[in-house]
Amino acid sequence: MLTLQRLIADLSAFWESEGCLIEQPYDLPVGAGTMHPATFLRVLGPEPWRCAYVQPSRRPADGRYGQNPFRLAKHLQLQVVLKPSPENVQQMYLASLERLGIVAAEHDIRFEEDNWESPTLGAWGVGWQVVMDGMEITQFTYFQQAGGVDLAPISAEITYGLERIAMFLNKVDSIYDVPWTETIAYGAVRRLEEEELSKYYFEVADVELAALLLDRSEAEAKRALAAGLVIPAYEATLTCSHQFNVLDARGAVSATERVGLIRRVRDLACACARAYLASRGGEPSPVTEPEPAAAV
Amino acid sequence: MKREDFLLEIRTEEIPAPALPAAREDLGRGIGEALSDEGLAAESILSYATPRRLVVWARNVPERQADREAEVLGPPASAAFDPSGKPTRAAEGFARAQKVEVSDLVVVESARGKTVAVRRMVPGRPAPDVLAEIVPRAVGALSFPKTMRWGEGERSFVRPVRGVLALYGKSVVPVEVMGMRAGNSTVGHRVLAEGEIPVLAPTEYFPKLRGAYVEPDGAARRAAILESARRLASQVGGRVDADSDLAAALADLVEWPGLVRGSFDPEFLELPEEITTTAMRVHQKVLPVRGPDGLLPYFIAVMDNAADRRGFIAKGNEWVLNARLADARFFFREDSRETLESRLPELERLNFQDRLGSYAAKTARLEELAAAIAEAVGRRDLVGDVRVAAKLSKADLTSRMVREFTDLQGVMGGIYARAEGQPESVWKAVYDHYRPHGQGDDPPRDDAGAVLSLADRFDTLAGLFRLEMLPTGSRDPYGLRRAAAGAVAIAVARRWRVDWSAIVKKALSLYPADLPGMQPERAVDALQEFFGERLRNAIERAGSSYDEASAVLAVGRWDFADAAERAAALTEARRRLDFRSLVLAFKRIRNIVEGETGADPSPGLYREEAERALAADFLQARALLDELVKGRRYAEALETIASIAPSLDRFFVEVLVNAPEEDLRRNRHALLAAIRREFTKIADFSEIVVEK
After folding, report:
1. Nearest to B317 by CA among A106, A135, A165
2. Chain B: nearest CA to A10, how far in angstroms?
3. Which residues does chain B have within 8 Å of residue A143's beta carbon, measured at their own beta carbons?
4. Rounded to an integer, what is the distance from CA B449 to the centroid of its chain?
5. Which one of B18, B150, B316 has the shortest CB-CB distance to A85?
6. B195 in contact with A at a CB cutoff of 8 Å?
7. Where are the alpha helices (DSSP H) in B235-311?
8. Whole-angstrom Cα distance, residue A134 to residue B275?
9. Are the beta carbons of B150 and A154 separated by less than 8 Å?
10. Distance (Å, rounded) from C-alpha B217 to C-alpha B570?
C-alpha cells in the first residue's frame, strides 16, 4: 500500500534531493498549482529556481457531490518547477517514479503530446501528458510564456495529480477509497467537504456577491499595482479568477461574457507579471541552487 | 571516386506523433537535395523516425566534390586594355589583387559585355566539411505546427534536442545541431537499454539500435503491431478491425512496440458499440477485438516495452478502460432520461459562432436548407424526414455523452433518435451528418444523411464567408476547407446533378441581412473560387492532370458531380485518342475569336472546299453531340469532338481565315466561334497543355 501521505512525503523528499526548495500551499483558492506565485512569478526573469509543493486546487465546476469516483471540486497537485529546465529532466521525472516503487521497465510509460494553455494567466507551454499503463498521471510542461511575457530561461513544470496516482498505485475504483493513511480513507477525510462544496457552488453560492467580489477585486488589484505592490495585486487577481470560476459553476456566465471576463483577468495577470519584472529590476531574489547540493 | 555512407541521427525528447511522418520525409529530402546541389549526390536516401529520433541514411556519398573552374570577374575589357591591347593600370591592379600575372588574365563575355577575368581551379571540398554545413540548414528548414524553447531558451525546435550522431564512413562529421555537438554514439530505448552505444560505422547503427530495443523504421513498427494484434485477437476467437490509422498512430508513439491483450467487464457490451469502441480507440488508444457476432470484451494495447513482465500494463489498462466505460455508461443513462426534442431549448444557449448566433438558429436554417436540397436532388419525398432530422441534428451537443466524447457528435444523436423510435432515414441522417470527417472517410450512408450533411456544410460556409472569416495559410479554425471538400465528395459520390450556386445563395439568404463582412453577392463569388479549388483537388486525386482539371472547370464548376464526370471522361479519352491537333486547333481558335459572340455562319458565304467540309462535319457532329451531352455520354461525345480534328486541320491549311473580303472574314470567324461554343461544353480544350 502506498498511502497518499507517503506519496506526498516521498515525492517531496525526492525533489528536495534534486535541489528543490519545498514551498507550502498558497493560502488562497486557486485552480491549479501553476497559479501559486512560486510558479507564476518565479518563472519570470533570469534567476535559476527549483521548487516543489503541494497545492490544493479548487475547481467549482468539477464538483460531483462526492458521488463521482474520479472528479473533485478540490484536488491535490504536487507541483515541481525547474528553471532552467535541466537536460536530464525526463530522467529526473522517471527517477521520481522509481522513488515511489515504480520500476519503469515493468510498465508502459509514454510521453504523449499535450500542450497547456491558461487564457486567464496569459500563459502557455508545450509538453506532454505522461501516460503510464493507459493512465494519465502527470502533466509535463515547458513554460513558454507567463503573464504575456516570453520566458527565457524556460522552466519545466511537472504536475502530479496525486489522487489519480494514489488510486492507480493502489488499484482502487474510487478516489474516496484511496488510503490517506494505513487506516483512514480519503473519503473519511474529504467526502463531506466535497458534498458541501458541490452543493454550495452549484446551488447556493450568491451570484451577486461573486460578481461584486470579482469587480471589487479587479479594482483592488489595480489599486495595489498603482501603489507598487505586486503580491497583493496578484492575490486580488487570484480572487478574480476564483470568483469567475464560482460564477461559471453557477451557470451565470454566458458565452459572450466569458470572453470578456477572461480578458479582464488576463489583463491583470499580465500587469502583475510586468510589474513583478520591473520591481525586481536587478535585485537578486532568493535563489535555490541550480544543481543539487548533495548528489543522490 | 571513393564513396561512403552518411548517417545522421538527431535525438530528441518525444516528438508529437502527428508531426513525425512529415519531419522524417522533409529531413530526408532536405539532406538529399542539398547533397545533390553540392555535387555530392547520394545513391539513395533513406529516412526513419521514432518519437525520440530522426534518422537519415545517405548511401554512397562521394568522398569529395569534383574540382571545378571558377571565374572571378574584373574590370570591363575596354578599361583594362588600351586600344593597342596593352594592359592598363586597371588590369594590373586587378591581377595584383587576384595574385596572378597580368598575362594570366582572360577576356570573357559576361552580363556586362567583354570583361576581364581570372580563371582558376577550385578544389572540391571533402564530404564531411560540406555535410557540416548542410545538416544544420536542413534541420533548420524543418517546419512544425508548433515549436518550443527549452533550457536557456535560445533555440527553437519541436521538442528539445538531446544528442546528435553524424558519421561519414568512420569519421564523425564536425557539426553542431541545436547546440549539440555530433558524436559517434547513440542511446537505446529509454527504459529497456542503458548507457551510450558506440557506433563506429553507419552500417553498424541499425543492428545495434535494434539490439537496444529501438525499431527505427515506422513501417516495420506498424507491421509488427498489426501482426501481433491479429495473433492476440485470434487467440480469443476474434479479430482486430483493419484500422491502419490507429496502428500507424500507435507506431509513432513507441520505439519498441510490444502488445498485450486485456479484457473489460462484459456487462459494458450492452452499451451501443460506438461508445465502447470510441472509449477504446480514441480515449484509451487500444484496439477493439471483434468476434463473429460483434465486439468481444477484450482489447489489445500497444506498449513501449518488450513484455508485460509483471502484468502491470494489462492490469493498468483494464482498470482505466473499465473506469472510462463506467463513466460512459453513467453519461448514457443520464442522457437517456431526456429526449432529443426536450433538449432543443438548450440549443438557444449554445453558441454556434458569436456573430452567427446559437445552435437553435442554425437548426432553424438547416431545416429550410435541407428541404431545399432534398427538392434540388429530386427527393421531394424526403423533405419531411430531412426537416425532422435537421431539427434534431444538433440536440446531442447538449448531452453529457457528447460533452465527454466529442468525437461522437452526430453518432450519439442518431443512437438516441433510434432509441426514441424515429424512422430509419431520420436517425441515420442525424447519425451520419458529420460524414465524411476528412479525405478518404465514408460519406453518409443514404440520401437523407447526404442532404443533411450538405445543408450543414453549406450553412457553415455561407455564414463564415459572410463574416469574411476565411482560412489563411495553414490556419483553418472552422475547418472550412474540410467542410467544402466533404460537400464536393458527397455530391460526386451521389452523382447528384445540381447547380449548387442556387443552394449557396439560399444558404446566404437565411442569415440576417445586416451581418458585417462581405455582401452576399461577393460571398457567392468567393465561394465559387473556394469550391472550385476543392473540386480541382477531388478531380486531380481521381487521376486527372492539372490542365485537364482546368479545361473541365473552365466550362462550369457549380455542378460538382458533372464536372467530375467530364474530367474522368476527358482523362480517359486522352489515353485512347490523339488530342494534340485538336488542342492546338482550339488554342488557335481561341486566339482568333476570343470574346466574339458570332451569329451563326451562313452557308451561302462558304467559298472554299475545306470550309464547306468543316461546316458539314460540324453540323453533323453537333446534332449527335447535343444528344450525347444531354445524356451525359461524355466518352462518346469526346470521340465525336475528336473526329472533327482532321477537317479543322485542313481548314487552317487551306483557308485564309482573315480574308480581305469583310463578309467572308466575318463568316469564317462565325464558323469558328460556333465550333468553339458548341464543342467546349465538356471541356475547354485550349486549356490543355501539349507540346507544340
Report:
1. A135
2. 21
3. none
4. 25
5. B150
6. no
7. 244-251, 273-278
8. 18
9. yes
10. 41
Q: In this structure, what C-alpha cell is assigned to residue A235?
A: 492575490
Question: So what's the pLDDT on residue A173?
Answer: 85
Q: B311: nearest CA in chain A?
A: A106
* Helix/strand/coil percentages in chain B, nearest 5: 55, 15, 30
What are the backbone angles phi and psi of residue A223, rounded to the nearest 5°?
-60, -45
Of B146, B152, B320, the CB nearest to A152: B152
Measure in Å the smallest separation between the Cα of B73 and chain A Cα atoms.
47
User: Is the distance from CB of B119 to CB of B70 less than 8 angstroms?
Assistant: yes
Contact B508, B523 (CB under 8 A): yes
Fold (CATH) for B3-65+126-211: Alpha-Beta Plaits (3.30.70)
Contact B310 A154 (CB under 8 A): no
Contacts of B194 in chain A (CB under 8 A): none
CATH class of the structural domain B566-687: mainly alpha
Helix (H, G, I), strand (E, B) or coil at B582: helix
Nearest C-alpha neighbor of B43 from the set B26, B23, B57:
B57
State the smallest CA–CA distance between residue B295 and chain A in angstroms.
Answer: 21
- Give tens-digit pLDDT for A107-152: 999 999 999 999 899 999 999 999 999 999 999 999 999 999 999 9
Residues of chain A with Cβ-Cβ distance to B307 below 8 Å are none
Burial status of residue B653 (CB atoms within 10 A of its CB: 0-12, 13-18, 19 or more) = exposed
Residues of B in contact with A113 (CB under 8 A): 14, 16-18
Nearest CB partner across the interface for A135, out of B13, B148, B316: B316
The answer, for B13 touching chain A at a CB cutoff of 8 Å, is yes
Q: Within 13 A of B323's CA, how many CA atoms are on the CB side?
A: 23
In A, which residues are within 8 Å of B317 by CB distance? 133-134
Q: What is the pTM of this model?
A: 0.80
Which three-class secondary structure state does DSSP give residue B310?
coil
ipTM comes to: 0.92
Within chain B, all domains assigned CATH 1.10.730 are found at 566-687
Structural domains for chain A: 4-201 (3.30.930.10), 206-280 (1.20.58.180)
Q: For chain B, where do the domains classified as CATH 1.10.3210 start and end? A: 341-541
pLDDT-derived band of residue A291, with 50, 70 and 90 as boundaries? very low
Class of the CATH domain delimited by B341-541: mainly alpha
> How high is the pLDDT of residue A255?
64
